[in-house]
Amino acid sequence: MEHEQDLIHFLQQDAELMKHLRTVATLHLPDWWICAGYIRAKIWDHLHGYDTPTQTDDVDVIYFDPTQPEESIEKEIEQTLYQLNPNVPWSVKNQARMHHVNHLPPYTSSMDALAHFPETVTAIGVRLNSNGDFIFAAPYGIQDLLSLQVKPTPLFEANSSKHSIYLKRMAQKNWPAQWPNVKLYT
Questions:
Q1: Fold designation for 4-145
Q2: pLDDT (tens digit, 9 = 90+) per residue, 37-69?
Q3: Which residues contact 115 (CB under 8 A, 6 or more apart)?
Q4: Half-sphere exposure of 46 (CA within 13 A, CB side)
Q5: What is the pLDDT of residue 89?
């Protein structure tokens, strides 16, 4: 993979991902995406030549609905997704409330929230639009992702307290243990 189109083609060929996207699309959530580690792991597995996919902790689904910011709504959506596909560890978060959790000003959209994720390689998302077209988003591009370089997003690089969160995440995640070609930048 060298270009965004290569990456999009690769992801579109992933039957599991496409099944998950079609499942989430049935809920008609506003401004929804499957994002973060689930997508990153698929790409890094491919770049490492792994035949067996890495087990991920969850399938991150984000959406943006300021009219219903209650966490209980997210749990209801998770339960609906479990009913539709019970073998998936769904994690659903309304980005209209997550700025509180992250001690930041309110996000304006799911894309704005993606741009405030800690690492550039995690700030990625995919979805199906209302016509069923595959949409890919990477606010910081795909170069770090494809070159296996983990770097903080601008917010987590510029702000010392946020940077310490990034460094703690890198220690906890220990991604090079799973993907030895990954390089962490501090």
A1: Beta Polymerase; domain 2 (3.30.460)
A2: 999 999 999 999 999 999 989 999 999 999 999
A3: 123, 139, 140, 153
A4: 18
A5: 97
